[in-house]
Every structure is written in C-alpha cells, then in structure tokens.
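> run fold Histone deacetylase 11
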Amino acid sequence: MSRNVEYSDAESGSLVHSPSRLFVTANERQCSLIFAPNYDVSLFGIERFHPFDSRKWGKVINFLKEWGLVSDNSLISPIEATRDDLLIAHDKQYLDGLRSPCRVAAVSEVCFASCIPMFILDRCFLKPMRLQTGGTVAACRMALDNGWSINVGGGFHHASRSSGGGFCAYADISLAIRILLGHQLVHKVLILDVDAHQGNGYEQDFAEDSEVYIIDVFNPNVYPRDRPARQFINRAVYVDSHTTDSTYMRLMREEVRLFFTSFHCDLLVYNAGTDCLAGDPLGGLRLSPQCIIDRDEFVFRAARDSATPIAMLTSGGYQSSNAALIAASIRNLHEKRLIHLFK
Ligand SMILES: [Zn+2]
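> ok
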C-alpha cells in the first residue's frame, strides 16, 4: 500500500486525490458523536427474528436523546464509503464477491440471506455497513482535531483485505488507518480491541506494518480462533470463558495501562465491543454492565492522561440490553468529563 497522498485506483487506473471524501468536520453546534439513522439494518421486519439486535445503533442514540444529552442537530452524519474508497482497504475480487447473495449470507452469518435478491441485500445490509465504515473513517480523522470521537457503529474487526465474516463485511478499521497513514496525518497508531472476539481482520491487514501496534484483549476459546493471525498481535491478553469483573479489570490495569506509558502513538483506535457482557451467546465472558462502563472510563482516562486522541467504535454485542449499556457508558464518559456532549 502506498504511503503517498494519492492512491492508485486499482479498478480505473485513475488517482484518488486527497483529502478523503469521507472526512467530515464538525460545526460549533455538533459534538464528536457520529451516527446516521441508516446505520440500523432492517429487512422488512425479518431481522426481528435474528438473535442479533440489528437496530442497536439507533437505540443508543434514542437513549442519549431521552436523557437530554444529544439532539439530531448535535450529531455528525457520516458519508457512505464508495467502491473507490473501499478499494483502499480491499481487493477487487473480494468486493466483487459481495455481489453474490451466498457470499453476503456467509459474511453476515444470516443463512436465509442467500435467498434474498442482491439489490435488497445491498440496500438493507451492505449499505448500512458502508455508512458505518464511512463513520469510522470520519471518527478517526475527527479524533485528531477534537481529542476524542465516537462512531456509534463500526468496529468490523473480522473483515480483512480479502475476506469477511462474523457480521463484518468491510474492514473499516484498516480503511481508516490506511487513509490517515496515507495522508501522513498519523505515523503511529495503536489499536486497542476489547471486543470479546479476536480482531483477526486488521491483524492480517497490518501484519507487515510497524506503524500499527495492536493490543487485543479477547477470549481465545470462541470464534474466530485464528491462530495464524495471533502472531501479528503485539500484545495479546487472553481472557478465558467465564471471566468475571475483578479478573478482567486487573488484566486491563496490569496489561493495558503499561502500554500507554511505554508506547507513544498519534491515535488510539478503541474497539469497544460489548459482547463481554454476561449472557452474551457468542462472547463467553461474564462481565457486569458496570464493569464495561468502568472499562471504557479506564481507557478514555488513560488516553487523556497520555494526551492521545481516541476514536471509539461500538463493534460487537447484539443482545437486547447492549444498546442501553453503550448509551450508559457514553453518559458516564460525559459525566466524568472525559468527553463533552451537548444538544
Ligand atoms: Zn465480538
């Protein structure tokens, strides 16, 4: 991948010029919270029968609105990533493959999707994912100016340049970092991934990149069990199934804080999945809601203390209670003055 400001477009041979069209700037009435109503996946109501809450992103915002913390005017709308944008992080063959319902069914892990016409899958599933991907790029850029940002979506850490899976179609983290590195807006990036699952997508993508440092805190006993990708993690923190609050926070304090004091970076990409919550059918951990709120506060505080810009992504966690938990954690960050929300 070129580190120059201009990218060669693999498809057309033309050059895609800077600045990225996915960068958005906040006006004085907006806080660094990125969201669009079209983040939510809806498939004529069928999605209600899927075990994932595919409307959690909108619910997070609804809670924050109910609590008087944000309004439509104070939120930042992302720009949907186009094929040309996505080619910065993906190869052409992979994107072409997403034109097949069977391939989309495999990536989304929704088997009946293979029976749905492609134009509907694109509108109802892939388009929201492209919008959230644009949100991650915007969040990472915005954090550099504002010190913090939250994309109320994104965090598709199982997608890589040439593959997807685990409900992850597009490699939003890789794309955002590639763009910022390419524009020389950052030189060192730290990914801290605390989703319950291993972030094997970006780990493969940045296998050869010394500019990207990876701390992955995950349960090694659940999907994706990608042992080859583990060699690309700089600091792997294993949390076994059934881990509870005190053990988890001890690991965060002992293993993670060390790196904030020893590693300087220009941006922290914080993949803050909430599937560590007790009862999650996929994560296998047993954390309380309060532990996850404390975890997010710990990371934001560490970022502030080291003057590191932080971009948070909400990633996995699709139980019906996850939206309220994410919203409560964002409210806590606001109340602790680690972020600043307004209506
Ligand atoms: Zn996960």
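The beta strands are 7-8, 15-16, 33-34, 148-151, 189-193, 212-218, 235-238, 267-271, 310-313.
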